[in-house]
Amino acid sequence: MSDNKVALVTGASRGIGAAIAERFAADGWDLTISSRGRDALELRAGELGDLGAGRVEVIPADMTDADAVEGLAAAHREAFGRCDALVVNAGMGQKGKVADLPVRRFDRLYQVNVRAPYILLQSLVPVLRSTAEIAGAAKVIAVASITGVYPEPELSAYGATKAALISLCETFNLEESVNGVSATTIAPGYVDTDMSDWLKDTIPGEEMITVGDVATIAHSVTQLSRNAVLPNVVLTRPGENLHRA
């Protein structure tokens, strides 16, 4: 078992996941980083090492492939034997009205945004519990969306999956927080990443939430004791419509 704190971060090659991994690296954590592409992960691993990370394991995984998700969890357990923070960040978006969005696209959203997190939680519960016994606490941090809390036109399917993720983590807390393992969902409005490029003619990237803002919340959660359960954090942008993405 690693003597360092250890995090598993999905969707870690870019955007919010990369920023969260960098924040942990700067604290000297060991890391497992995952996304679909190995080349981008290998490049990121080198950068994380330069920032101060301890050991960095690179494990590509497609979140639509249940076997790959289970394999990711197993590889992390084998590599480190502990998990102080499980960061469920990999996700996908899809824009479309209820009247128009094909069900097959909803199904893919659900696979990535809900089913994969469920598999990771289920697969890593034993190591999260054992880590909490040794370290005092283990945290799950799941990147959701403000659309899972407040409705946004044309984001019904995406918002529904993020609402499901929030509900999953809230129930997880009821079952596991007594064991020192708790989950926090972070539900931001539009974040300045490539996932938001389609909107930047309307909302400039410099007016969006930064990836560093989300990483700050994620890192702060890991500083909480086992007695502090933070179910959900909503990050909004400035302005009159604080209940909009």
TrEMBL record:
InterPro entries hit by this protein: NAD(P)-bd_dom_sf, SDR_fam
Pfam families (alphabetical): adh_short
Superkingdom of source: Bacteria
Gene3D superfamilies in alphabetical order: NAD(P)-binding Rossmann-like Domain (3.40.50.720)
GO molecular function, one term: oxidoreductase activity
An annotated GO cellular component: membrane
UniProt keyword terms in alphabetical order: Oxidoreductase
Family: Belongs to the short-chain dehydrogenases/reductases (SDR) family.
Listed name of the protein: SDR family NAD(P)-dependent oxidoreductase
Organism the protein comes from: Gordonia aquimaris
